[in-house]
Design brief:
By secondary structure, the chain is mainly α. The chain has helices at residues 2-5, 9-17, 30-59, 62-68, 75-107, 113-119, 128-139, 144-153, 165-188, 193-201, 206-234, 238-243, 250-259, 263-289, 310-337, 357-364, 366-399, 405-417, 420-430, 449-457, 459-470, 475-483, 488-516, 522-525, 533-542, 546-579; strands spanning 108-109, 305-306. The chain has a domain at 61-337: Orthogonal Bundle (MetI-like fold), CATH 1.10.3720.10.
């Protein structure tokens, strides 16, 4: 019975291959398309655009803006300068490190290359709060390295400690160089070997070949990565919170004004930060739509050149080893600290007592496990909503024929440009009073505001991953299925959905683990009964229970590492299926 109800893939492919040039039926009927358009538009306008407009209405007050930016020495003017200054230097530092790593791993074969390649994307496995925590344990005034050097050389004071603007910069470079590395590594796979051979035949050395051949080829990827990194750096909250000390940042000003009960000033600073991020989102979209075509389209990529000279291999070995240590040390530090017994690490270089209690407490003590259960529940609720909404919007954008799809696509990307602190302020101002959007209830101070924030923040993830999968889907399969008598719903469920499922799962896994470790919105919206893991990590850190804070962090890293592995596996499966 089930075999008769299942559409034969062989029959479907045969029908699809013979339907070249046939009229496209489409997976969406006009009625369904309009329903999807109205529903998606209502959700995006109601929960993304309207709250942002409420904040703009509150914050775009000339008197308030004049007051908070009263002089060049005001706290908010310094915050604006610091945010821009850090973002510019983050682009420089992350761009240099990420591009250099991508080029060296692509062009040369040297000792420890495989290990370095495996660890190159490691910072992606660290949630922002966990990464900052690792640097605090490692490089802070009481960190392992400063105290270790002090003890080793018998110094009266620690020789260095990372704090202030440069500490924020270092954390940003560590966590954001990955964007340059991934973008440039993907672009380098399309380099034509004949171009490098031609440059070499004309007498160009390695540096000139890189400057005249490779760099122009990488420029679109580097521009996209630079815009993305600048926008993410402007929205950074965790590193400034724990490292900036008395320095001002726009995100910290938003947080401080809110905690002091001054929502008007918080909204005003939110407007300034949002406008900056929206400008860069617009530039990213223009860059994406410019459709720059790679100059290398034929031929094969060059094989890596082995580093054969003795001194060259030594330099390569030392350089690769230093980068590996730089990448792995924060993760190893968090793992080490997760075994520390409470109160056993004060002035010593390394902890003096270790225990498994920090991990056992996660399983057996209800009050310790509660933040984990809260995060799992809220992340699951947000992820389910993101899947349902993201698939609907992606199908509408790629396969629909209704007007307004371009606007829906733009609005679905908009949450990516709104910093987490601003989303939190948007929701606080919008849902501090009853409205139709909240079912007539006040959501501020309730459990539901955090899952809603997670849903809004991660709308672009599932939408973009599903769009990418749908853009490679063959519409002839849909036409053939409908021609064979299957309904549109059955066609979607049995033909289209299995094809795009890897893309949906990849975006869903990223949504789930990102929501699990979300800190920026959580710190402004949580209540005690729904406090998430990230907030509990900060609480344990402030109580000097470093072991418990690190144990929560390791739990998050494991989940994110597992999701990253699953995402890569699904991506590999999908690419393989497409190549067939």
């Amino acid at each position: 019975m089930s075999s008769r109800r299942t559409i034969s893939s062989r029959r479907l492919w045969s029908r699809a291959l013979t339907s070249e040039g046939a009229a496209t039926t489409g997976i969406l009927s006009p009625r369904t398309g309009w329903i999807f358009t109205l529903l998606a538009g209502a959700i995006l306008i109601g929960y993304v655009v309207w709250p942002m407009l409420r904040v703009f209405t509150t914050g775009l007050n000339p008197d308030v803006l004049r007051d908070i930016f009263s002089s060049i020495n005001s706290a908010n003017t310094r915050a604006l300068f610091n945010s821009v200054w850090i973002s510019v230097w983050t682009v420089v530092g992350a761009g240099f490190l990420g591009t250099a790593m991508a080029w060296l791993l692509f062009r040369y074969d040297f000792p420890l290359k495989r290990t370095l390649s495996s660890l190159a994307a490691l910072p992606l496995a660290l949630p922002p709060l966990v990464g900052v925590l690792a640097f605090l344990f490692l490089y802070g005034e009481s960190g392992i390295l400063p105290r270790g050097i002090q003890m080793l050389f018998g110094l009266e004071e620690v020789p260095f400690s990372f704090s202030g603007l440069w500490a924020v910069w270092l954390v940003h470079v560590y966590s954001m160089y990955v964007f340059y590395y991934l973008f440039c590594a993907a672009s380098l796979k399309t380099v034509d070997q004949s171009l490098l051979e031609a440059a070499s035949d004309m007498g160009a050395g390695p540096w000139r070949s890189f400057r005249t051949v490779i760099l122009p080829h990488l420029r679109p990827s580097m521009v996209s990565a630079s815009l993305l990194v600048f926008m993410i750096s402007m929205a950074s909250f965790t590193a400034p919170l724990l490292f900036a000390g008395t320095e001002n940042f726009l995100t910290l000003q938003i947080y401080n004004y809110k905690m002091n009960g001054n929502l008007t000033y918080s909204a005003a600073v939110s407007v300034v930060l949002t406008i900056i991020c929206l400008v860069f989102l617009l530039l990213i979209e223009l860059e994406r739509r410019s459709g720059r075509v790679s100059t290398a389209s034929k031929g094969s990529a060059p094989a890596p050149s082995p580093v054969s000279s003795g001194p060259g291999r030594v330099v390569a070995l030392l350089g690769a080893g230093a980068i590996i240590v730089f990448l792995a040390l924060p993760v190893l530090t968090v793992i080490l600290i997760s075994f520390v017994k409470e109160g056993s690490w004060t002035y010593q270089v390394l902890p003096q007592a270790y225990t498994l209690e920090n991990y056992l407490n996660l399983l057996r003590q209800p009050d310790v496990a509660q933040p984990i259960l809260n995060s799992l529940r809220m992340a699951a609720l947000a992820s389910v909503a993101n899947i349902l909404f993201g698939v609907m919007v992606a199908v509408l954008i790629v396969k629909g024929r209704m007007r307004g799809r371009g606007l829906i696509r733009l609005l679905s990307v908009l949450p990516f440009a709104i910093p987490g602190t601003v989303i939190a302020i948007n929701l606080i101002i919008t849902f501090s009073e009853p409205s139709a959007l909240s079912g007539g209830a006040i959501l501020v101070g309730t459990f539901w505001l955090l899952p809603l924030a997670y849903f809004i923040r991660h709308i672009p993830l599932v939408v973009r991953s599903t769009i990418a999968a749908l853009e490679t889907y063959d519409d002839r399969l849909t036409d053939a299925s409908i021609d064979l008598g299957a309904s549109r719903w059955r066609t979607f469920r049995q033909v289209m959905l299995p094809s795009i499922l890897p893309g949906i799962l990849a975006g869903s896994l990223l949504t789930f683990v990102t929501a699990l470790g979300e800190f920026v919105s959580s710190i402004l919206l949580y209540v005690f009964d729904n406090r998430p893991i990230s907030v509990e990590i900060l609480s344990q850190l402030r109580l000097y229970d470093f072991g418990a804070a690190a144990a929560y962090s390791v739990f998050l890293m494991i989940l994110i590492g597992l999701a990253t592995w699953l995402t890569g596996r699904y991506s590999d499966d999908r690419s393989g299926a497409l190549s067939i």
